[in-house]
Design goal:
424 residues, alpha/beta, Aminopeptidase, Alpha-Beta Plaits, 2 domains, elongated, binds zinc ion
Length: 424
């Protein structure tokens, strides 16, 4: 074990330059830039120790000749057959946005931190898992079982051209993979067991157009929408705050059902910026609202949808000429594995050895690719564990601490040893 930990310490500079190299390939999604470039880079890096497959998720959302969806899977067979541990990282990052004091794609190393878009979410985790696997392989070249590292796309936009596509093709089937670690930035002393569910929907209220000087001749879709919003404000949101969960979601305020109103649009379109024209007097005949409902493992998706239909029906009974429709946009079921699942147990022991404490078991308020591994791949034994602070994800001046990456690489390497070669 000492040799393994020392092998990781000796790779500190390598870990830094690997992370910087990954940051300097801007894999911004949308639209999905440089996906092939980062695969080629990873193929060169992993090629000496792994068998490489480059996988094009043809025809998945966003896939085009200009922005092809390329994933990489690296697999190494050990000396004897056994279990397979798979590290899955998404290679895409969100746009840089404004407010940076460092170049978002420069990978500057300042005061023990590497700055850049994706340092924490999640190229730092990808780099840590590569260092962990390489140090383990070089220390125990005759290890049992198999190791896989995948770099997959589009996690930030649902994962359909990445993990979902691979799961549909059997890459996470029980015959191939037994343990999955997703190095998302949940922090080096936390094991993330799963995430809440999501339902996005568009609610439309319908009215009847009329002259704005005689609104009584029409039906105002926006007043209808106001009534719906009143119900949401005064009844639904208080009710949701009473739906608490046993899932250990962090931050704690997310340990319940929540609803966000993403947008409301109604009536005439907003005038173009700089337009000097005046609006015309019309009663709006349509208003649309997009809701983002996050639900807990104790709720079913049917229940969540029925709650909105019931609310709309209540409004319909209290208002004349109220018509509505609901359109599903996106749905994800909650996913959670057990704290004593094999992969979580191995990480728990390793965290104890490296950090001298017990981990905190958490769940994520938002979703990540675990949903596809669980729901499509039917592989429950999957957690997120990786360096970085979730609060920095998608923010300006995102960074990852080099020491945190090293510590979590040690944890991953020890867990790898435990899961493949047996307890030390
Ligand atoms: Zn992420």
């Amino acid at each position: 074990m000492e040799r393994l930990l020392a092998a990781i310490d000796a790779r500190r500079d390598d870990l830094i330059s690997l992370t910087q190299d990954l940051i300097r390939i801007p894999t911004v999604n949308p639209p999905g830039e440089n996906y092939r470039d980062i695969c080629d880079y990873l193929a060169r890096r992993l090629g000496p120790r792994f068998e490489i497959s480059l996988l094009h998720a043809e025809g998945t959302p966003g896939d085009s000749p200009r922005y092809p969806r390329w994933n990489i899977l690296a697999r190494r067979e050990g000396a004897r057959p056994g279990q397979c541990v798979h590290f899955n990282s998404h290679t895409d990052v969100v746009e840089a946005g404004r407010g940076w004091t460092h170049d978002p794609f420069g990978g500057a190393l300042v005061g023990g931190r590497i700055y850049g878009r994706g340092t924490c979410d999640m190229k730092g985790g990808l780099a840590a898992s590569i260092i962990a696997a390489e140090a383990f392989i070089d220390t125990f070249p005759d290890h049992d079982g198999a190791i896989e590292i995948s770099g997959t796309v589009d996690e930030e936009s649902g994962g359909y051209g990445g993990v979902a596509w691979m799961a549909e093709r059997g890459y996470f089937s029980p015959g191939r993979v037994q343990h999955v670690i997703i190095p998302e930035p949940l922090h080096k002393d936390r094991v993330c067991l799963g995430h809440r569910g999501v339902w996005w929907a568009e609610i439309e209220t319908k009215g009847r157009i009329a002259h704005g000087s005689m609104p009584f001749l029409g039906t105002c879709a926006l007043r209808h929408m106001g009534a719906v919003m009143g119900e949401i404000e005064h009844r639904l949101i208080p009710a949701l705050s009473n739906k608490t969960t046993a899932m250990p979601v962090v931050p704690e305020a997310a340990r319940q059902s929540t609803l966000n109103i993403n947008s409301v649009h109604g009536g005439q379109p907003e005038p173009e910026p700089g337009s000097t024209g005046l609006p015309s007097p019309c009663v709006p005949d349509s208003a649309r609202m997009i809701i983002d409902r996050r639900f807990i493992i104790e709720e079913s998706l049917d229940e969540v949808k029925a709650e909105i239909t019931d609310l709309l029906e209540r409004v319909a009974h209290s208002r004349e000429d109220f018509r509505y429709s609901v359109r599903d946009l996106f749905e994800v079921l909650p996913s959670m594995t057990e704290a004593d699942s094999p992969v979580s147990t191995a990480l728990t022991k390793a965290i104890g050895t490296v950090l001298g404490r017990a981990p905190e078991y958490v769940a994520s308020p938002g979703t990540y690719d675990q949903k596809h591994i669980d729901r499509i791949g039917r592989l429950k034994n999957c957690v997120a564990y990786g360096p970085g602070l979730l609060e920095l994800a998608h923010q300006p001046d995102e960074y990852v601490e080099v020491d945190d990456m090293l510590d979590s690489a040690k944890v991953m390497a020890l867990a790898l040893h435990d899961l493949l070669n047996g307890p030390a």
